[in-house]
User: What shape does this take?
Amino acid sequence: MQDRPTPEELLTYARQVLLDEVLPDLPAERRVTVLMIANAMAIAARAAAQGEAPLRDELASLRALYGDPPQALPTGPDLVAAVTESNARLAVDLRAGAFDAADARGRALRAHLLESACQKLRESKPKHLKAERLA
Assistant: This one.
């Protein structure tokens, strides 16, 4: 069982204290730095709340894109390594034009890339997704 507060809750609380209690007392030239730190804390909290799910989804999508046989997804550092390796493979194939045709494989690639971009925005700028009606 997870004790409370969770890491995400700690980050959220610390960020709020930083914005509400520290930021107002800072000189103007220091505010940008504190706002940047607060933004990084919000991103870290969202990433922590999602856990490995985005990486697992990305790896599953990449494997499906290549028609790889279903297999158990790794976890932890092995998951990160597998995603990195799969993206490196994709980059090589993109440079070689392997997905240039306007066929099902090309459409699957575009869907994968759109979802990857949306996932990055879910962590870094979720309001942008809503503004663009992608959320």
Summary: The chain has two domains: 7-50, 53-131. The radius of gyration is 19 Å. The first helix runs from residue 7 to 22. The mean pLDDT is 93.
